[in-house]
Structures are given as structure tokens and as C-alpha cells.
Specification:
alpha+beta, 1 helix, 73 residues, Phosphorylase Kinase, domain 1, globular, 4 strands
Length: 73
């Protein structure tokens, strides 16, 4: 999990969380499918206690889930 900045098409910047599979799992089709399923399910949900999803992207050939960032301890 990483913290990053994302700029939208209007030029507004926001902090996001980026979840990338461990390098040992990024070629495992079952693990990649689980991350895709997680993204699909998050996109269907709308609740204040659940992270909102921004995107599912490829970073250097690896699938990554981009969600809202929540500052926690």
C-alpha cells in the first residue's frame, strides 16, 4: 500500500492510496483476479465507512487499485 497524489482533469490534486500486489503475486492470475474483483465490488458500494475507489490501473505492468486515502494510525 502506498500514498500518492492524483490530479484530476480539472487540475485538482488529492491524496490517494495505491494498493499493488506483491511482486510474488503479480503474475498469479488468481491474485490478480481477486484484486480486480475487489475493485469491482468497491465500485458498487457507497457508504461513509467504505473507501471509495478511483481507478484500477496498470503501473509498470502491475495491476494497482487506487482508492481514497484515509489518514489513520
Amino acid at each position: 500500500m502506498y500514498r500518492a497524489s492524483m490530479t484530476n482533469s480539472n487540475g485538482l490534486e488529492t491524496d490517494v492510496a495505491v494498493k499493488v500486489l506483491h511482486t510474488d503475486l503479480d503474475t498469479d492470475t488468481q491474485s490478480v483476479q481477486r484484486l480486480r474483483d475487489e475493485a469491482r465490488l468497491l465500485a458498487l458500494l457507497d457508504h461513509p465507512s467504505i473507501l471509495s475507489i478511483h481507478d484500477l490501473v496498470l503501473l509498470d505492468g502491475r495491476v494497482a487499485l487506487v482508492t481514497e486515502y484515509i489518514d489513520g494510525q
